[in-house]
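hey m, so remember when u said the tokens were messed up on ur end? i reran from scratch. heres the input so u can diff it against urs
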Amino acid sequence: MARPILAAMLNSDLRAFGRDARRLRLDTLVRLRWLAVIGQSTAVAVVHLGFGFPLPFGLCFLVIAASAWLNLALRIFYPASFRLSDNAATLLLGFDILQLAALLYLTGGLQNPFSMLFLAPVLISATALPPERTLGLGCLAVGAASILAIAHRPLPWAAGQELQLPFLYVSGVWTAILLGVAFTGVYAWRVAEEARQLAQALSATELVLAREQHLSQLDGLAAAAAHELGTPLATIALVAKELDHALPKGSPIADDVALLREQVERCRGILSKLTSLDQEQPGFLETMTVTHLLEEAVEPQRGLGVEITVKASGVGPEPACRRNPGVLYGLSNIIDNAADFAASRVVAEARWNGEQVEIEIRDDGPGFAPEILLRAGEPYVTTRGADNRDDPTAAGGLGLGLFIAKTLIERSGAQLTLRNAPPPATGAIVQIVWPRGSFEPGAVRMARDASPQEEAHPEHSDAASYIRS
């Protein structure tokens, strides 16, 4: 059951991998710029001091110093591991092109053999930024080269002599820069894109293997727990039944024994759910709307002293799904957790539109403790207990309940997020969002068959074919 659904789940993960793979580390650009500063300084010093060629030495080093100051500022205000957004990386590479253009203007324009360094920022952009950003930087480089072809200071040469290269030669240099920008940009982007696709496929495969192992362990633990608890629970049920028969009518503890038998039956129901979590889905016609799904998950928690309200609203027809014991168990666990910590009220609200189905569970309790909110949902991390800091035993468990619920719900193709209500309100909010195609019954067929999205994104095909195998 999990394999076809995981195929649909991986689309968002692969897009995230792609974004992360493209992002440049600030340290990479800073190091490359220091290399450029050293190279430019050495070239200017050798030409002016070594060869004795006259050139605007002070202005050249002022332009070079601008790059050095930028590097120092970036080092001060940002950590070396900081990853740049596309906008920031584009601006920094654009600065490098303009800085090189200013230096070439002072030293002969396109007659300067170092004018071919216009290719460097475009090459870096092609390996790390989207094609449209590389196209913009390429146009900037070609535009700067076009201006330098006709407007520049003389090329540094021996004192009293002026070297003026023919315009036809300068035109050839301009053409070489244009073709170099186009060729290296396309070639570097293609090579980098293929490497990214391979990295995404490997990451997706590792993700599938990790999730499959996690789910298999979870199913095994659930079955083992149900088996081990079945015998003592049957004994408790038998003793409770005998006590009920042995008690005289009107006994003061008759209500307590009845409650005990009721809770034993509830435990049996929970164990039966645990043993059915990994079974195949019921028949195609056994479906339930999102409202009925919420009502069934809420029903066991009613009458426990907390008001639980179910709301539903959306655009278009109400979505329906196959009855999924794993999703029902996960929702029931989350609602039970909300009822335990709520002051007086829990709201379970369903919303939908043409693209997604959302369930939001809110309570008016203390909310998640800030120091554990980022790790909530991991095993052995207590999710509440913000008011019991001095008593670890009152923290509310090891966090396994929410971990199991999160795993089972995300197994169905949903994305689960946890947060606290914005001040001045209080309470925890659990938001569960399904793509509508994953929530409704056709999602299994959609994930199993080759979809148009896979055809449009061939880089996803390696991971998807692995999942379907």
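this time it looks ok to me. The chain is about 60% helix and 10% strand. if urs says something different then somethings off w ur setup not the seq
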